[in-house]
């Protein structure tokens, strides 16, 4: 199931290392001791700093590449585990189906809309709800900064798989892509065209993600060349102008130093599992909830609260009566998801079908208690939770599975 790839983490590595090394060079140039005598206070400070570096914690970092219209064109979750010298990355397609209460337009049901309409906090909440993990920090890099980074390092050589031609004069600013097939060095402007092109891939948005992976592999090779070292201060200045993050300068430096020191032995990266489809006339990427649970367990085990199968948690879930109904007309769907709930300790009292109606999206209904419904929704990675309280109902929660769970 898991594929080990060197992918979008490379741009993050480039960003963080550039900032950190630039900071380090600045520090060394400015804070040179005036005397050659041994400075014991400086030694003690270094020891203290090293202790902090050794004790840095594992974090989930949300990385966002945004366009001129503040759309999250690239979404990644990066988990750096310094204790085990491991990096985990999960790519989330921008068209991932994520309906939000109060946002009913077709385009508003895509996860990148959470960023454009509710900024980074909205996207952070969406990712936390979608994957049931805690996001500790974020990093945002816009396209203008990306272009300047590529130009500063002298471009990146990639193999363009086919002619890429696309014009959108209605975009703000207008988008024009014109790349010829073949191996070539892309400057900043052409690099943006390459990673933004999305209309000629057989597998849609996943094809675009693969192309981004190819580009960022080439970017890593370029960044790691010795000839880049003199350009690090310029990169640091560029990045500081175009990058937004809630990581402090000391945190960035600590993590970058730890990364350089450890040289992580494992970099595991994967795209969110699922497939493209339509709801009405709008195309979405529908998440495979079961495979997503497996990936979350594997890559983010220590961070996931709902996957805690302690005796107390299982006992609490046994008091929640659930009926699960197949509203997609897909054979065996309700039984498959009922097994997930049973494994989490929930009391599944009914499995059935919705008659006479087909649902595109899945819903969870609170029949007695909203908190119980939220627990069930979180276990099944369903975002639609609604109240349908009834004094005569025999279950606490009703789940209707839609086509997004196929």
TrEMBL record:
Which family does the record claim for this protein?
Belongs to the LytR/CpsA/Psr (LCP) family.
Superkingdom in the source lineage: Bacteria
Q: What keywords would UniProt list here? A: Membrane, Transmembrane, Transmembrane helix
Stretches assigned to the Cell envelope-related transcriptional attenuator domain: 72-224
The protein's name in its UniProt record: Cell envelope-related transcriptional attenuator
What is the originating organism of this protein? Answer: Thermoanaerobacter italicus (strain DSM 9252 / Ab9)
Q: Which residues cross the membrane?
A: 7-27
Q: Where is the LytR/CpsA/Psr regulator C-terminal domain?
A: 319-404
Which Pfam families does the annotation name? LytR_C, LytR_cpsA_psr
InterPro entries for the chain: LytR/CpsA/Psr_C, LytR/CpsA/Psr_CW_biosynth, LytR_CpsA_psr
Transcription regulation as UniProt keyword: no
First and last residue of the signal peptide: none
NCBIfam families, from UniProt? lytR_cpsA_psr
